[in-house]
Specification:
The structure is a homodimer of 107-residue chains.
Chain A: H1 14-22, H2 27-34, E1 38-40, H3 41-47, H4 53-65, E2 69-74, E3 80-85, H5 87-90, H6 93-106
Antiparallel strand pairs in A: 1-3, 2-3
Chain B binds a DNA duplex (30 and 30 nucleotides) through residues 24-26, 40-42, 51-58, 73, 76-81.
Chain lengths: 107, 107
Amino acid sequence: MKAKKNKNNLEECPVSNTLKIIGGKWRLRIINEIGEDKRRFGELKRLIPEISEKMLIQELKALVEYQIIVRKAYKEIPPRVEYYASEKGKKVFPIIEEIKKFSNDTN
Amino acid sequence: MKAKKNKNNLEECPVSNTLKIIGGKWRLRIINEIGEDKRRFGELKRLIPEISEKMLIQELKALVEYQIIVRKAYKEIPPRVEYYASEKGKKVFPIIEEIKKFSNDTN
DNA sequence: TAAATTATTTACTTTTTGGTAAGTATTATA
DNA sequence: TATAATACTTACCAAAAAGTAAATAATTTA
């Protein structure tokens, strides 16, 4: 059983905590484009044309650190790297589904 | 039937579109604290101690503009203002629910 | 030899978001 | 008369997020 970090104060609300991981302009977008697939960096670039390369790797890195996605690099030239959702990452799919429903329901 | 704004290019993805409305550090947090209740400004301040007053009204205003919440002001002195979720706003509850599930599942 | 390929990295600038702290209006109450 | 109460508003500054543009490494192919 993992202890919660209730030392002095901190440990906020579940909403804020989750937003630290998947909040921001790009993360859900990226996770959505990866979905159940494996995606290469260049592929994601095409799928999300509005994102800059800098933001894309930066956010991919963060998602890897949070263990939402997995990075697999092949030792080839030119390089090939694939990203895919971890088990933890798959747990954000339902959030995305609800977001899509909201979008449909409200537009 | 409402036409989608597919003039020249634009009209992005449902994820990005929804994040414009409920994205950012505070909006989901605020909606979550309002929930099914009516909440006064000062109440929300207490419920979300980390937010500054400036951010709180700023975000409340934005949520009112997006018709996620409703602002009801009573003509009293000292002033009394209540905020509550609109029908549209209630449609974001399922998103919040999934976020909470994620938080539970993963911590 | 030059160019293409791919996934980064870096430096620099702009934009957006957020924080602090003080002020306002209006009435009731001490 | 001074203070409390409430929901803001304003000005000013700092920090975080994001954009631009160019560079890199290591091979293969033309």
